[in-house]
């Protein structure tokens, strides 16, 4: 009996050994490696979740969808993938370009069925703001909601379900058949199924990870301990511009500035330089195309990285792209005309019921330009973790 048991056990062990010799491990990222090569290292993910943030930065949004390295990595792929458009030609990155602080040099970005209705907003530091709504008219209640609205737009990415477009469900079917998405969604969510909510969460994590805190301003702010007083690393002109930015103006009864600074901080709060959520229209009410006025525009990106480190612009400014230089941007606020029909003009621009007249001189304009240039960093334009993972 013992001999028989020994023979059976030996047979089982031998069979098991032979099976192990024939066993080939399945690579859970075979399709990812085949598609992206060394551009994505799933065993050594980039640091998205624990990037250093200066202690003086206190405004945050997105607590309900915290950034993870896994989620942001998937978001990066989605952000650059042209498969998210109906003709496989347009991605999020087509309109939000890293080399331009995730904006566009075109006034209106080109979509699958025409042009966008407003200029593409810069995405830098979108997480560091009190305002949690998105789009120029704040029609998206959150960044998560915003991420798939361009995909669902007929002109932009073409899964609108209108005007002959396929519905968004067709995109989900398409992505569910992509091998690298099966692997990535399984890795991030524990399920390979692609859903809109998962797409939204991953894209939002990637976008919120895009940050810029290596500017001349940040060096000065860290050394000074507050925005008050001159920064030791600033020139006299840059310090004058900072003072003008932070100091409220003094107006007479008819809206003419008689003293003080320019008070830009009233809408763009330092040190994040984000838009105040209660801001109204800034006086620019035109449209990129068509006629009529557009008074619903009250959102704005941070003022950080308005220009590149070399001082050249990251494309036109404002929702219409009508402003093409810092000098023109400052000049717009220098003389505010209350246009007929603009029922949403920010009251901070209409002291005593009149459009503000700042009566800027050349020295003040140049100082403001010098200060705004100190808000630009370097890393956001070149960091690989925010770059296109698809091979050229």
From TrEMBL:
The keyword Oxidoreductase applies. PANTHER family: BLL6722 PROTEIN, CYTOCHROME C PEROXIDASE-RELATED. The lineage of its organism: Bacteria, Pseudomonadati, Bacteroidota, Flavobacteriia, Flavobacteriales. Coiled coil: none annotated. One of its GO terms (cellular component) is cell envelope. GO terms for molecular function: cytochrome-c peroxidase activity; electron transfer activity; heme binding; metal ion binding. Residues 70-179, 236-376 form the Cytochrome c domain. It is found in: Cell envelope. This is Cytochrome-c peroxidase. Keywords: Heme, Iron, Metal-binding, Oxidoreductase, Peroxidase, Signal. It comes from the Bacteria. InterPro entries: Cyt_c-like_dom (IPR009056), Cyt_c-like_dom_sf (IPR036909), Cytochrome_c_Peroxidase/MauG (IPR051395), Di-haem_cyt_c_peroxidsae (IPR004852).
């Amino acid at each position: 009996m013992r001999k028989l048991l020994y023979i059976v056990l030996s047979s089982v062990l031998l069979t098991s050994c032979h099976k192990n010799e024939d066993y080939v491990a399945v690579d859970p990222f075979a399709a990812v490696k085949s598609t992206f090569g060394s551009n994505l290292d799933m065993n050594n993910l980039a640091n998205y979740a624990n990037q250093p943030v200066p202690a003086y930065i206190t405004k945050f949004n997105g607590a309900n969808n915290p950034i993870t390295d896994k989620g942001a990595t998937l978001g990066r792929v989605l952000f650059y993938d042209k498969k998210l458009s109906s003709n496989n030609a347009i991605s999020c990155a087509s309109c939000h370009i890293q080399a331009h602080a995730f904006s566009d040099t075109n006034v209106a970005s080109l979509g699958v069925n025409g042009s966008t209705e407003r200029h593409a907003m810069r995405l830098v530091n979108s997480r560091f703001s009190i305002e949690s709504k998105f789009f120029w008219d704040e029609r998206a209640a959150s960044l998560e909601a915003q991420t798939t609205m361009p995909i669902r737009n007929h002109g932009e990415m073409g899964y609108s379900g209108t005007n002959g477009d396929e519905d968004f469900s067709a995109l989900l079917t398409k992505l569910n058949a992509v091998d690298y998405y099966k692997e990535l969604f399984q890795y991030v969510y524990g399920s390979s199924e692609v859903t809109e909510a998962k797409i939204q969460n991953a894209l939002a994590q990637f976008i919120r990870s895009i940050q810029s805190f290596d500017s001349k301003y940040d060096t000065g702010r860290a050394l000074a301990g507050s925005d008050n007083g001159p920064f030791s690393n600033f020139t006299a002109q840059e310090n004058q511009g900072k003072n003008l930015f932070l100091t409220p103006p003094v107006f007479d009864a008819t809206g003419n500035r008689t003293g003080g600074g320019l008070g830009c901080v009233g809408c763009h709060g330092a040190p994040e330089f984000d838009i105040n959520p209660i801001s109204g229209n800034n006086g620019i009410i035109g449209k990129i195309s068509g006629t009529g006025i557009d008074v619903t525009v009250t959102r704005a990106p941070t003022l950080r990285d308005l220009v590149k480190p070399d001082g050249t612009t990251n494309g036109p400014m404002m929702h219409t792209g009508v402003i093409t230089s810092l000098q023109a941007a400052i000049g717009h606020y220098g003389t505010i005309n209350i246009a007929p029909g603009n029922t949403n003009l920010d009251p901070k621009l209409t002291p005593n019921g009149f459009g503000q007249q700042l009566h800027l001189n050349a020295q003040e304009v140049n100082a403001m330009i010098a200060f705004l240039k100190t808000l630009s960093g370097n890393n956001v334009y070149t960091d690989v973790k925010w770059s296109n993972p698809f091979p050229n």
